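Internal ticket #5521
Category: modeling
Description: The requester needs a full-assembly model to guide mutagenesis choices. All entity lines are attached below as received. Residue total reported by intake: 672.
Assigned to: D.W.
Attached entities:
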Amino acid sequence: MIWPRAKLGMAMLLLSEGVFFFMLLLAFVYFRDESLKTATATLRLQTTSIYTACLLGSAFTLWRGWRKVTIVLGLVFALGQGSEYVRLLRSGVTMAQGLFGTTFFTLTGIHELHLLLGLALLAALPRNQAAAMFWYFVVAVWMAVFAVVYLWTFL
Amino acid sequence: MITHHKRIGVFYLLSSLLFFLLGGAEAMVMRAQLSLPNLKLLTPETYNQVFTMHGTTMIFLVVMPVLTGLGVYLIPLMIGADDTAFPRLCAIAFWLQVGGGLLLYFSFAIGNAPNAGWFSYAPLTENAYSPGPGIDFWAFSILLIGAAIVASSINLIVTIATSRTSGMTIRRLPLFVWMHLINSVMILFALPVLVATLVMLLGDRLLHARFFDAAQGGSPLLWQHYFWIFGHPEVYIMILPGFGMISEIIPVFSRQPIFGYRSMAASTVAIGFLSYGVWVHHMFAVALGRTLLSVFAAASMLIAVPTGVKIFNWTATMLGGSIRFTTSMLFAVAFLLEFTIGGLSGMAFAAVPVDWQMTDTYFVVAHIHYVLFGGTIFSIFAGIYYWYPKITGRLLDESIGHWHFWLVVVGFNMTFFVQHFLGLLGMPRRVYTYPDVPWWGALNLISTVGAGILTFGILMFCANIVISLRFGAVAGTDPWNAWTLEWADGNTSVPVRSARPLWDLKHPEAPDWAHEQ
């Protein structure tokens, strides 16, 4: 079984992207003890769960071939993430404020950049299979981030 | 836009040669400064910048791109493809690579080159200790180069997976292609670790994050772990394509098929896996606990087994063969000897107590140069002499080549063999000057004279490239009477029924495929 070149190339890119996110996630875990207090005090599990459900739903809609719905759900998540950032920054949690800010904003910020790129790819290349693979990857990485950063914090 | 793999391959080779001369000039500046005790030609600050630029240049702007360039040029020819799978990606990877190099050297122009060594240990790289922009230039340029290397690896993997001519099964791939394939997969796992580490460093420096700043709760140890999780596989990434070239050259000049084709491929896979489990041997001096150190010491020694398999395979290939000592073959044989010395000093470092005594001394400098110069650069010289006629249609001159070879062998060993003793005598590396301790002055002077001889050898090489381009003997399509497809001169009708299709074509009475399986 040989994949078409574009899909194989995208798979290889996502493999290396996966390692990249794994290392950022590992850095979050490495400093977890120091950042746990700030995390419990500032993160909102319920709100983020709703946005996460939207993102998960976007993978389903993409699988069904409803690209426009996927883009809308992706935008909802991006806006949710944006409002979370505004709330955190207003309450004084920044990159420079402490280890939680450092690891949280690096990890989720890089993910957010990938998410925006994924949305652009979905919009620009409506029938492209490789672009769809990229979006599934963005969703999968968020699931790992959500599990480690949110669920584990409030367990 | 130029995207054809042959053109891009040559671009890679030429840009690497340019940076090789720059990196070599930096090395000569260091050797001049160290030639006598208490010499103060350079300020300590300049010296730090020079050794950082030398290491970064040689690793990211010479060894990585020259190996990529040879792969990009040769792999499509060897597997019977018209071009790489993604020609535009091929071109953009090259220009990103060059852009990264120019960005790095621009730091000299603004008077603030990076100065924290090629592995830039934190917290030295934090704003508090490196307030200038030098480290930012370093990190951004390596981010670009990292993206370039990942891009070209993706391209090579997809090319090898999808563009092989009919009959070119995975078990018939030339070993050069095998090694590049495994190498590219290793790059996909190793380079993103470096990219993540650089992103975190830039976060610290530009956005005041706290990853590596111990004063604010961060952890310099995290930098060491992350850097070497990339850094040790990187060591093998810089040698595997060299192994591949040696595996093509020694059989052709010994007139015998490679001994142990399968064990060659399998031992490369083993090296690939093991290389991810040995990074802590760069950090034995950090108090990590005896159990951890023992595990990593054992794993590091284990890696000598698959490497030893290769050395024995190459030796066995030569055994009983009718050997032609062309310049290419001379470099290949010298590679076996020099790389073995580098491997043995590496084994010494795998033993924790030896490492504690020797870490951060000139013994490390000797070791890294025996594997990277005596290993990789020697294999690259062998490869250039072997494939130059393929690229240009003319042979490199053999008598200049012999001068090049002997000057490099004498100069290289004179420069670096004595550094083992300097390390044993306790001379730390990365000091810009040193007191007149017994033997230090004499050994350093020998090393500097050796570096001068080595420089003459390199200049011979450059002269040979230029002179032979104009006056070299016309090579014809297959000057070495070789066996792999790149020498078929675009004749796509050569059937591939074994790992040596041109042998089968030339010897219908005893083809390899008759005794396959």
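Resolution: model delivered.
Comment from assignee: The domain at 42-154 of chain A is CATH 1.20.120.80 (Four Helix Bundle (Hemerythrin (Met), subunit A)).
Ticket closed.
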